[in-house]
# Entry
Amino acid sequence: MLVTLAFGASFGCMRGDTATDKPVASGANSSLQGPLSGAGAMLPLPPVPDLPADKVALGKRLFFDPRLSHDDTIACATCHKLDSGGSDRLPVSVGIDGRKGGVNAPTVFNSSLNFVQFWDGRAASLEEQAAGPVHNPLEMASNWSEVIPKLSLDDGYLRDFKRLYPQGMTGETIVDAIATYERTLLTPNSPFDRYLAGDKDALNPLEHSGYQRFLDYGCASCHQGAGLGGNMFQRFGVMDNYLKDNAGRQADLGRFNVSGLDKDKNVFKVPSLRNVAVTPPYFHDGSAESLEQAVIIMGRYQLGREFSSEDVNALVAFLRTLTGEWEGKRLQ
# Structure
């Protein structure tokens, strides 16, 4: 499971693949009435890729199959519910035997746009990510030697794997099929995408004001591109240490758990903001229950700015325009 994406680590960061201790200017002197400078960093959602339909169907079946877990109770879809924004809306996900993970599970929607997977970026691809939960003792607690014999009892699986892959069913082909399905989980037609496509009426005045503030205050320094995030690392707590009360939690060390470098402590993959309004709670630890709370925390700890109530209302209104559609219906 992609371990929720939500707002996370950071407004006000520098571009690049490594963290920096220095924030960029917060935009305190920029005018909310000025042009949308920085808007060029925002890209519309790409179209759903044209992938082999039979491989997508196989991946979808595997995504919903609890036999990937040791006790046949946990599927990918258990923590990434497509009818709940692609996440489970829990602070941390629950695996077999009620075991709790250490971080919030991000949405699976649009995950193919991320430059790495997981909050700490330990998986370089969707395929690598898909294998992680199968072997994680807190999630599915299984392995391919256990999973493949169970799935091989299913004639449909045997037939499909033999037809689609010369090597048949292996751990590698299982995660290839799952990742192929996940690459189709894009959520088009958000109001913001319609705005980027030229429909200037897609945002109302409050939403447009929120977008202007999003750019002026530096939010787009990290949350940009097609995913409005998901393409860099940054420290959670550029202006102050948000995690000081949980200094002993391994999950709060972030990228450090992968690299072992002191500079990577409290550094995380910047999450995508697409569909952020329907994927609470927020941050890697699920510590912000509402979008309003998340916005206030981001302003304070990433920008050194205390947002006014007008700022919060406008920013939240804009963030709600990032909710797209799945199978023709707006995500709820």
In short: Residues 53-182 form a domain with the Cytochrome Bc1 Complex; Chain D, domain 2 fold (CATH 1.10.760.10).
